[in-house]
Amino acid sequence: MAGAGLLVAAEFATLYDVRVVTAVPEGGAFSTGGHHGYAQAVLAVAIAVMAFGAVVGGSRPAAVAVLVLALGSLAITLLVDLPDVHETGLIGRTYADAAAEPRAGLYLEIAGGCAALLGGALILAARPARRRPSRSRGTAAAR
Question: Which residues, listed in sequence order, are joined to residue 14 by a DSSP beta bridge?
Fold first, then answer.
């Protein structure tokens, strides 16, 4: 659940900004949520629901879903957001001293994805697979 909370917080934080010397010009700050269509918020809600089902309901498939959703979140962060945090774009073409730097949104996304991944793994480790009683062909009830 902490991972889901961090992912939601990341959506409203700044992913990166482009600075010229010490100032951020108009249009130089980029939000995390807007960068990927608020996909992390959707994943965060799904992680929270699946974590609830895994912990309260004892559902192993829900715990596996938490792991898969956490991996999806990290994939978005590392494959979509991370490559762009050093892009200066049009501001870099206009100002020679422009530099892009990652901000809190990127780090919150990484922390949220890792926390959700760790949480899913801990849920799976804490709930061992149920063993079904074996049915042998030679039982007394079958005769």
Answer: 31
140 assigned to some structural domain = no
Q: Indicate whether 106 belongs to any domain.
A: yes
Is residue 134 a part of any domain in this protein?
Answer: no
- Sign (positive or negative) of CA dihedral 67, 71, 77, 82: positive
pLDDT one-digit tens code per residue, 47-58: 999 999 999 988
| Alpha-carbon separation of residue 135 from 49, 61, 143 (angstroms) | 35, 25, 13
Asked if the structure places residue 143 within a domain, the reply is no
Dihedral sign of CA atoms 72, 11, 97, 27 in order = positive
Q: Nearest to residue 10, comparing CAs of 118, 116, 121, 113?
A: 113
Q: Which two tokens stand for residue 36?
A: 């990927």
Residues 118/71, Cβ–Cβ less than 8 Å: no
Cα separation, 102 vs 124, whole angstroms: 33
- Candidates 72, 69, 53, 75; CA nearest to 123 is 53
Query: Which tens digits make up the pLDDT trace of 76-110?
Result: 999 999 998 888 888 888 888 888 889 999 999 99
